[in-house]
Design brief:
- With 245 residues, this protein is α/β, with parallel strands linked by helices.
- It has two domains: 130 residues, Rossmann fold, CATH 3.40.50.2300; 101 residues, Arc Repressor Mutant, subunit A (Orthogonal Bundle).
- The protein contains eight helices and twelve strands.
- It has a five-stranded parallel sheet, with helices on both faces. A four-stranded antiparallel sheet has the order 6-7-8-9, covered by helices on one side. It has a three-stranded antiparallel sheet with strand order 10-12-11.
- Helix 1 crosses helix 5, helix 4 packs parallel to helix 8 and helix 6 crosses helix 8.
- The N terminus is likely disordered.
- Keywords: DNA-binding, Phosphoprotein, Transcription, Transcription regulation.
- Pfam families: Response_reg, Trans_reg_C.
- One of its GO terms (molecular function) is phosphorelay response regulator activity.
- One of its GO terms (cellular component) is cytosol.
- InterPro entries: CheY-like_superfamily (IPR011006), OmpR/PhoB-type_DNA-bd (IPR001867), Sig_transdc_resp-reg_C-effctor (IPR016032), Sig_transdc_resp-reg_receiver (IPR001789), WalR-like (IPR039420), WH-like_DNA-bd_sf (IPR036388).
Amino acid sequence: MALGSDRKIYSRAVATRVLVVDDDPTVSNVVSAYLTKAGYDARVVADGVLALEVWQQWKPSVVVLDVMLPGLSGLDVLRRMRAADDSAAVIMLSARGEEEDRLVGLEVGADDYVVKPFSPRELTLRVQAMLRREERLGGVDLTPTKLTAGPITVDTAARSAYLSGAELSLTHREFDLLAFLAAHPGKAYTKAELLRRVWGWDFGDSSTVTVHVRRLREKIEVDPSDPQLVLTVPRTGYRFAGVAE
Protein backbone atom coordinates (compact mmCIF):
# COMPACT_ATOMS: atom_id res chain seq x y z
CA MET A 1 0.00 0.00 0.00
CA ALA A 2 2.32 2.73 -1.23
CA LEU A 3 1.38 6.32 -0.56
CA GLY A 4 0.40 7.95 -3.85
CA SER A 5 0.29 11.52 -5.05
CA ASP A 6 -3.41 11.97 -5.88
CA ARG A 7 -3.73 15.23 -3.99
CA LYS A 8 -6.65 16.47 -6.07
CA ILE A 9 -9.04 13.89 -4.62
CA TYR A 10 -8.33 15.24 -1.15
CA SER A 11 -8.74 18.94 -1.79
CA ARG A 12 -11.98 19.30 0.21
CA ALA A 13 -10.89 17.53 3.36
CA VAL A 14 -10.95 19.43 6.62
CA ALA A 15 -9.05 18.89 9.87
CA THR A 16 -11.57 16.41 11.26
CA ARG A 17 -10.57 13.79 13.81
CA VAL A 18 -10.27 10.19 12.60
CA LEU A 19 -9.30 7.40 14.98
CA VAL A 20 -7.57 4.38 13.38
CA VAL A 21 -7.68 1.21 15.51
CA ASP A 22 -5.56 -1.68 14.21
CA ASP A 23 -2.81 -3.75 15.82
CA ASP A 24 -0.98 -4.20 12.51
CA PRO A 25 1.32 -1.17 12.05
CA THR A 26 1.75 -1.93 8.33
CA VAL A 27 -1.98 -1.18 7.98
CA SER A 28 -2.50 1.56 10.56
CA ASN A 29 0.57 3.61 9.63
CA VAL A 30 -0.27 3.69 5.92
CA VAL A 31 -3.93 4.50 6.57
CA SER A 32 -2.92 7.24 8.99
CA ALA A 33 -0.48 8.67 6.44
CA TYR A 34 -3.19 8.84 3.75
CA LEU A 35 -5.66 10.45 6.13
CA THR A 36 -3.09 13.00 7.33
CA LYS A 37 -2.21 13.84 3.74
CA ALA A 38 -5.92 14.36 3.08
CA GLY A 39 -6.01 16.97 5.83
CA TYR A 40 -7.49 14.91 8.65
CA ASP A 41 -6.25 14.78 12.22
CA ALA A 42 -5.53 11.04 12.43
CA ARG A 43 -4.59 9.16 15.58
CA VAL A 44 -3.59 5.46 15.80
CA VAL A 45 -4.16 3.01 18.65
CA ALA A 46 -3.47 -0.74 18.65
CA ASP A 47 -5.90 -2.34 21.11
CA GLY A 48 -9.59 -2.26 21.95
CA VAL A 49 -9.34 -1.06 25.55
CA LEU A 50 -7.19 1.93 24.60
CA ALA A 51 -9.47 2.61 21.63
CA LEU A 52 -12.41 3.13 23.99
CA GLU A 53 -10.38 5.44 26.20
CA VAL A 54 -9.21 7.58 23.27
CA TRP A 55 -12.68 7.63 21.73
CA GLN A 56 -14.25 8.86 24.98
CA GLN A 57 -11.65 11.59 25.49
CA TRP A 58 -10.86 12.65 21.92
CA LYS A 59 -14.37 12.44 20.35
CA PRO A 60 -13.41 11.55 16.75
CA SER A 61 -15.92 12.02 13.94
CA VAL A 62 -14.89 8.77 12.22
CA VAL A 63 -13.46 5.56 13.65
CA VAL A 64 -11.67 3.04 11.42
CA LEU A 65 -11.92 -0.11 13.52
CA ASP A 66 -10.35 -3.52 12.97
CA VAL A 67 -12.46 -6.51 14.03
CA MET A 68 -9.61 -8.54 15.53
CA LEU A 69 -7.91 -6.59 18.33
CA PRO A 70 -6.03 -7.52 21.51
CA GLY A 71 -7.75 -6.78 24.79
CA LEU A 72 -11.21 -6.13 23.41
CA SER A 73 -12.51 -7.08 19.98
CA GLY A 74 -13.56 -4.44 17.48
CA LEU A 75 -17.16 -5.66 17.65
CA ASP A 76 -17.17 -5.27 21.43
CA VAL A 77 -15.69 -1.79 21.10
CA LEU A 78 -18.44 -0.90 18.65
CA ARG A 79 -21.17 -2.34 20.88
CA ARG A 80 -20.01 -0.13 23.76
CA MET A 81 -19.87 2.92 21.51
CA ARG A 82 -23.39 2.39 20.22
CA ALA A 83 -24.70 1.63 23.71
CA ALA A 84 -23.54 5.13 24.62
CA ASP A 85 -25.53 6.52 21.63
CA ASP A 86 -22.31 7.56 19.95
CA SER A 87 -22.80 9.31 16.61
CA ALA A 88 -19.31 8.72 15.20
CA ALA A 89 -19.25 7.02 11.82
CA VAL A 90 -17.53 3.63 12.02
CA ILE A 91 -15.76 1.72 9.25
CA MET A 92 -14.98 -1.87 10.22
CA LEU A 93 -11.85 -3.56 8.85
CA SER A 94 -11.57 -7.33 8.58
CA ALA A 95 -9.66 -10.06 6.76
CA ARG A 96 -12.93 -12.02 6.64
CA GLY A 97 -15.07 -11.08 3.66
CA GLU A 98 -17.96 -13.51 3.94
CA GLU A 99 -21.41 -11.92 3.81
CA GLU A 100 -22.33 -13.20 7.27
CA ASP A 101 -19.29 -11.46 8.79
CA ARG A 102 -20.22 -8.19 7.10
CA LEU A 103 -23.81 -8.46 8.29
CA VAL A 104 -22.71 -9.03 11.89
CA GLY A 105 -20.66 -5.83 11.82
CA LEU A 106 -23.50 -3.87 10.27
CA GLU A 107 -26.02 -5.29 12.73
CA VAL A 108 -23.85 -4.19 15.65
CA GLY A 109 -23.86 -0.66 14.24
CA ALA A 110 -21.03 -0.22 11.73
CA ASP A 111 -21.62 2.24 8.90
CA ASP A 112 -19.33 0.46 6.45
CA TYR A 113 -17.27 -2.73 6.23
CA VAL A 114 -13.98 -2.95 4.32
CA VAL A 115 -12.22 -6.24 3.64
CA LYS A 116 -8.43 -6.56 3.83
CA PRO A 117 -6.36 -6.12 1.76
CA PHE A 118 -7.80 -2.79 0.64
CA SER A 119 -6.70 0.40 -1.04
CA PRO A 120 -5.91 3.14 1.51
CA ARG A 121 -6.90 5.65 -1.16
CA GLU A 122 -10.38 4.10 -1.40
CA LEU A 123 -10.67 4.03 2.39
CA THR A 124 -9.85 7.74 2.51
CA LEU A 125 -12.54 8.39 -0.09
CA ARG A 126 -15.03 6.50 2.06
CA VAL A 127 -14.12 8.64 5.05
CA GLN A 128 -14.64 11.75 2.93
CA ALA A 129 -18.01 10.45 1.72
CA MET A 130 -19.18 9.86 5.28
CA LEU A 131 -18.22 13.37 6.34
CA ARG A 132 -19.89 14.93 3.28
CA ARG A 133 -23.05 13.06 4.22
CA GLU A 134 -22.94 14.49 7.73
CA GLU A 135 -22.65 17.99 6.26
CA ARG A 136 -25.59 17.69 3.90
CA LEU A 137 -27.82 15.23 5.80
CA GLY A 138 -28.09 12.90 2.83
CA GLY A 139 -29.57 15.54 0.56
CA VAL A 140 -32.56 16.28 2.82
CA ASP A 141 -33.72 19.89 2.57
CA LEU A 142 -33.20 21.49 5.97
CA THR A 143 -35.92 24.15 5.45
CA PRO A 144 -38.40 23.80 7.01
CA THR A 145 -36.66 21.94 9.80
CA LYS A 146 -39.69 19.83 10.66
CA LEU A 147 -41.55 17.47 8.38
CA THR A 148 -44.36 15.02 9.02
CA ALA A 149 -45.19 11.92 7.00
CA GLY A 150 -47.90 9.66 8.38
CA PRO A 151 -47.18 9.01 12.09
CA ILE A 152 -43.54 10.07 11.68
CA THR A 153 -42.28 13.55 12.53
CA VAL A 154 -38.67 14.49 11.81
CA ASP A 155 -36.89 17.55 13.15
CA THR A 156 -33.77 17.88 11.02
CA ALA A 157 -32.33 20.79 13.02
CA ALA A 158 -32.53 18.92 16.33
CA ARG A 159 -31.82 15.57 14.65
CA SER A 160 -34.75 14.01 16.45
CA ALA A 161 -37.63 11.87 15.19
CA TYR A 162 -40.97 10.90 16.66
CA LEU A 163 -43.45 8.10 16.12
CA SER A 164 -46.99 9.17 17.07
CA GLY A 165 -45.46 11.76 19.39
CA ALA A 166 -43.00 9.41 21.11
CA GLU A 167 -39.32 10.18 20.50
CA LEU A 168 -37.39 7.47 18.70
CA SER A 169 -33.92 6.29 19.69
CA LEU A 170 -32.08 6.20 16.36
CA THR A 171 -28.45 5.97 15.38
CA HIS A 172 -27.02 8.73 13.21
CA ARG A 173 -27.40 6.62 10.08
CA GLU A 174 -30.92 5.44 10.93
CA PHE A 175 -31.97 9.06 11.41
CA ASP A 176 -30.52 10.09 8.05
CA LEU A 177 -32.27 7.21 6.30
CA LEU A 178 -35.63 7.94 7.93
CA ALA A 179 -35.32 11.68 7.27
CA PHE A 180 -34.57 11.10 3.61
CA LEU A 181 -37.39 8.60 3.04
CA ALA A 182 -39.91 10.66 4.99
CA ALA A 183 -38.98 13.73 2.94
CA HIS A 184 -39.85 11.82 -0.25
CA PRO A 185 -42.97 9.77 0.59
CA GLY A 186 -44.29 7.53 -2.16
CA LYS A 187 -41.08 7.63 -4.20
CA ALA A 188 -39.19 4.36 -4.60
CA TYR A 189 -35.40 4.33 -4.37
CA THR A 190 -33.01 1.56 -5.29
CA LYS A 191 -30.35 0.47 -2.83
CA ALA A 192 -27.72 2.09 -5.03
CA GLU A 193 -29.64 5.38 -4.98
CA LEU A 194 -29.95 5.25 -1.20
CA LEU A 195 -26.23 4.57 -0.86
CA ARG A 196 -25.58 7.65 -2.98
CA ARG A 197 -28.21 9.96 -1.49
CA VAL A 198 -28.07 8.95 2.20
CA TRP A 199 -24.58 7.47 2.60
CA GLY A 200 -22.95 9.77 0.07
CA TRP A 201 -21.21 6.86 -1.64
CA ASP A 202 -20.86 6.10 -5.33
CA PHE A 203 -19.76 2.58 -4.34
CA GLY A 204 -20.43 0.19 -1.48
CA ASP A 205 -22.11 -3.00 -0.35
CA SER A 206 -25.90 -2.90 -0.84
CA SER A 207 -26.33 -5.12 2.23
CA THR A 208 -25.52 -1.97 4.21
CA VAL A 209 -28.88 -0.55 3.12
CA THR A 210 -30.69 -3.84 3.76
CA VAL A 211 -29.43 -4.04 7.34
CA HIS A 212 -30.22 -0.41 8.15
CA VAL A 213 -33.73 -0.70 6.73
CA ARG A 214 -34.30 -3.77 8.88
CA ARG A 215 -33.01 -2.00 11.99
CA LEU A 216 -35.16 1.05 11.24
CA ARG A 217 -38.27 -1.08 10.77
CA GLU A 218 -37.67 -2.68 14.16
CA LYS A 219 -37.98 0.78 15.70
CA ILE A 220 -40.88 2.31 13.76
CA GLU A 221 -43.10 -0.57 12.62
CA VAL A 222 -45.78 -2.25 14.74
CA ASP A 223 -44.84 -5.52 13.06
CA PRO A 224 -41.42 -5.32 11.36
CA SER A 225 -42.21 -8.50 9.40
CA ASP A 226 -45.23 -6.74 7.88
CA PRO A 227 -44.04 -3.15 7.41
CA GLN A 228 -46.58 -0.41 6.79
CA LEU A 229 -44.26 2.60 6.69
CA VAL A 230 -40.99 1.64 4.98
CA LEU A 231 -42.17 -0.60 2.18
CA THR A 232 -40.21 -2.96 -0.06
CA VAL A 233 -40.77 -2.31 -3.75
CA PRO A 234 -40.15 -5.59 -5.63
CA ARG A 235 -37.18 -5.50 -8.01
CA THR A 236 -36.59 -1.84 -7.10
CA GLY A 237 -35.85 -1.03 -3.46
CA TYR A 238 -37.76 0.86 -0.79
CA ARG A 239 -40.25 3.69 -0.38
CA PHE A 240 -41.92 5.49 2.49
CA ALA A 241 -45.69 5.00 2.57
CA GLY A 242 -46.74 8.11 4.50
CA VAL A 243 -47.97 11.36 2.97
CA ALA A 244 -45.88 14.44 3.61
CA GLU A 245 -47.53 17.36 5.42
